[in-house]
Design brief:
The chain is an alpha+beta fold and 166 residues long. The chain has 5 helices and 7 strands, in the order E-H-H-H-E-E-E-H-E-H-E-E. A 7-stranded mixed beta sheet has the order 1-2-3-4-5-7-6, sandwiched between helices. A hairpin with a 4-residue loop joins strand 3 and strand 4. 22% of the residues are buried.
């Protein structure tokens, strides 16, 4: 049974372990190892993660029968928008509906907060994620190219789910 539990700063080592396990499977076909390592080191720096948790970004650990299998994070962005920051599931648990359950969890939170839009950023070359988000009802709102770190440009879509019509 899939359940979610709020992550605390004590869970940061577990979240980092999950990220460092999942990311190579998700990204090495679309970005270089160097780029992946830069992103991991910045986004999953314990200090950064603690600051996010303290500022209201909700991190949740996804468990299957009490065993961690993934994580997600989200927060209100600027009302009436909610941002889905992260949703990741272990490779061996993908294709079982866990990712969809994560999207439902984030959608439920967004609606509870009165959000009208749930949005996320996704690499334009990440076809697997794009298919999943589209199947859930997200639509590409715009293309965004931005410098994540010097010399490393991300080529993303901002995808949005209209919560008033879905």
């Amino acid at each position: 049974m899939i359940t979610f539990r709020h992550a605390t700063p004590d869970d940061i080592p577990l979240l980092r372990e999950l990220a460092y396990t999942i990311w190579p499977h998700a990204y090495l076909s679309i970005i270089t190892r160097e780029q992946m390592n830069i992103m991991l080191s910045k986004m999953y720096d314990p200090k950064t993660m603690r600051e996010e948790m303290a500022s209201g970004v909700i991190w949740k650990i996804v468990e299957d029968d009490h065993i961690p299998v993934g994580y997600l994070s989200y927060s209100m962005f600027k009302p009436p928008e909610c941002k889905l920051h992260k949703v990741y599931v272990l490779p061996e648990k993908q294709g079982l509906g866990i990712g969809r359950t994560c999207l439902e969890e984030a959608t439920h939170y967004a609606r509870e907060q009165g959000a009208e839009i749930l949005f996320l950023m996704v690499n334009r070359a990440n076809e697997k994620a794009l298919r999943a988000y589209r199947a859930f009802g997200f639509q590409e709102a715009k293309s965004v190219d931005w410098e994540f770190s010097p010399g490393f440009i991300l080529h993303d879509y901002k995808m949005a789910l209209n919560l008033r019509t879905s």
